Amino acid sequence: MRYSELRELVQDVFGPLGTTLVRDQVLGGLEDRTAEQALADGEEPRRVWRALCDAMDVPEARRWGSVERGRRPGQ
């Protein structure tokens, strides 16, 4: 996953709240860092995305965005 894909998914799945979540939500799955801090520390975007989805209880079916985006799980 690329950083640009992560940004697109954040917007698609969380909408306007996404930017705030990335900046402010402390994630236990990322050693109590925010997604923004973890990315700045060099964490893989895919790991950051999974931790954010886990923390926000995003159902597996929604984790890869809307059907309109044409994404499939694992992409």
Automatic annotation (TrEMBL):
Q: What is this protein called?
A: Signal transduction histidine kinase
> Source species, please?
Cellulomonas bogoriensis 69B4 = DSM 16987
